[in-house]
Design a protein that fits this description.
Layout (H helix, E strand, L loop, with lengths): L2 H9 L5 H8 L12 H12 L3 H4 L13 H5 L3
Helix pairs in contact: 1-3
Length: about 80
């Protein structure tokens, strides 16, 4: 997703990264917003003229990082 598209969506009324995700699927790629999440929060904050802390981050959902069943069981 382009920065201009994020800014346009913010102008349409989204309030946080999760709202943006619902409208555009931004943050639902392969990295699951691990690479883009902070940037998205910064862009939204800049467009709304507030701090990124006020905007927040994408809601973290399990699994945080996929692991195998062998890793989960602790088997070497």
């Amino acid at each position: 997703m382009k920065v201009s598209e994020i800014r346009e969506t913010v102008r349409m009324g989204i309030k946080d990264p999760d709202s943006l995700k619902s409208m555009t699927r931004c943050g639902m790629g392969y990295c699951q917003a691990r690479m883009s999440g902070l940037t998205v929060s910064d862009i939204i904050a800049d467009e709304k003229k507030v701090s990124p802390e006020e905007i927040g981050y994408f809601r973290v959902r399990s699994p945080i990082r996929p692991i195998t069943l062998v890793q989960l069981a602790g088997i070497d």
